[in-house]
Write a structure and sequence with these properties.
2 domains; alpha+beta; 16 strands; about 20% strand; Immunoglobulin-like; 17 helices
């Protein structure tokens, strides 16, 4: 009977979960050298993000990606959709900069400048200010919901909500002029797209930084998955020194500690970690490189009278070969780093050169499709073109037009045009040439557009003249 029951039990399906239930992380606040750097970078990035849309330049917003006008203003520069090459170059430079930083010092960007890390840090500061330190938060969450807990939680969520909405509002302010956006809010005249993006971006900020936090870094961020491809044995990473720290153990008064390592097994490195990992288990993809464990471990070492650096920035080769600081730095400057640096500098110089020498003029030439060629009263052949002149400078210009490529080719009518600042001007140009000036069919010609008073602003564009 028992054997039959055992066989039946073995054949019954067993539920297996592939997902670990999330355990809320109550990270303890720690102050120290790396925390000070993190505070400085959080403040710097947010001053830039929140403050830039309010800067004025030439009676307009200094940085504005105006989607309606299809113009991108960046201080004294005006970019049009035709300038997408500069966006591509910017993305390439950003990618190589990320490769370089990662190859040198691991996930430094994640720990100090990633938006997810930055806003999580801001939300945690609010949480610590409203609810108290780690022990106070743990005690409150375990306790029943009462009037005090409801008040504190409501205050925290309200402050999170205000910060999230202001973040969404600021983001939209980069695409809609801030003055116009404020006026629309005050007059309750926000457009559907503006309202959508304010609440969408604000809502995701509230969700990601307030609740998901380390889950975004662990499960949603692709960088956490392919970061190991950019690492090598000479990459600086946050490392626990097991040769010095093991065997770990508490140092009780009067007990023999001669056989123990320097790690006192206090667990503080786990308590302060925003992703909840134990750095003593080695490098893990969840580590965002914030170095909070270094700050807290150094403080513990100071208290027990042991040298700092049990947890520190080091490399795999340095740990294996017992390299000193000078040798570690010499290994960092290696062919891979030199190659990344050389490519980054080269691309930046080329991009800077073309940006500085960029001609603030763009011209599109479109043939009049309704009349390919026509005969004038004097027997000459006329072609009609529509010119679209984009003045990308922030001052009005007066342009002079000339055409060449055929004997006797001339412009019929006005050969100059006024163009407003940072504007698009369209007008028709009639060219005439003797019928014997070229071959039948298409003949290559060139338009030259020059700004009067500034010969450096000159553009030469190719077109074709049709002779019947």
């Amino acid at each position: 009977m028992n054997q039959a029951a055992d066989q039946k039990k073995q054949t019954e399906p067993t539920a297996v979960s592939f997902y670990e239930k999330r355990k809320k992380i109550y990270a303890k606040r720690v102050r120290g050298f790396f925390d000070n750097w993190r505070i400085a970078l959080v403040l710097l990035t947010q001053v830039i993000f929140y403050g830039t849309p309010w800067i004025q330049w030439n009676d307009r917003q200094a940085v504005l990606f105006h989607l309606v006008e299809r113009k991108f203003y960046i201080f004294g520069l005006v970019f049009w959709p035709q300038d997408v090459i500069y966006l591509a170059i910017l993305l390439i430079i950003s990618a190589y900069a990320l490769f370089l930083v990662t190859a040198v010092a691991g996930r430094l960007f994640c720990g100090y400048a990633c938006p997810q890390t930055v806003y999580t840090q801001l939300f945690m500061w609010i949480e610590n200010w409203v609810e108290g330190d780690r022990n106070a938060r743990l005690k409150m969450d375990k306790g029943p919901m009462d009037a005090r807990k409801l008040r504190i939680k409501s205050t925290k969520f309200a402050l999170w909500g205000i910060l999230s909405l202001w973040t969404g509002f600021t983001l939209v302010g980069y695409f809609t002029p801030m003055s116009e956006l404020i006026n629309n809010v005050l007059t309750n005249n926000l457009g559907p797209w503006e309202m959508l993006w304010i609440f969408l971006y604000g809502g995701f900020t509230f969700l990601f930084a307030g609740f998901m936090r380390e889950q975004v870094c662990k499960y949603m961020c692709p960088y956490a998955r392919f970061q190991s491809v950019m690492f090598d044995p000479d990459t600086l990473i946050i490392t626990y020194d097991p040769d010095r720290g093991e065997p770990r153990g508490l140092r009780k008064k009067g007990a023999d500690t001669s056989k123990l390592g320097d790690c006192v097994d206090c667990g503080q490195c786990v308590v302060v970690c925003p992703t909840g990992i134990d750095i003593r288990n080695g490098l893990q993809y969840e580590c965002i490189g914030c170095a909070a464990c270094i700050d807290v471990c150094d403080q513990v070492m100071d208290k027990v009278g042991l040298p700092r650096g049990l947890v520190r920035y080091s490399t795999e080769n340095a740990m294996q070969q017992k390299l000193d600081h000078k040798s570690i730095m010499s290994h960092i400057i290696r062919p891979r780093i030199l190659l990344y640096t050389a490519i980054l500098i080269l691309i930046s110089i080329i991009a800077g050169y073309f940006l500085v020498n960029r001609i603030p003029l763009k011209v599109d030439i479109i043939r009049d499709r309704s009349t390919l060629a026509r005969e004038a009263d004097d027997g000459s052949i006329e072609n009609v073109f529509m010119l679209q002149i984009m003045n990308t400078s922030e001052s009005p210009q007066h342009y002079k037009l000339t055409a060449e490529g055929l004997d006797g080719l001339k412009i019929v009518g006005d050969d100059s045009v006024d163009a407003k600042a940072a504007g698009l001007t369209s007008f028709n140009v009639v060219l005439a040439a003797p019928p014997e000036s070229g071959k039948r069919g298409s003949n290559p010609i060139h338009f030259t557009i020059t700004a009067e008073g500034n010969p450096d602003i000159t553009l030469r564009e190719k077109a074709s003249f049709l002779l019947p």
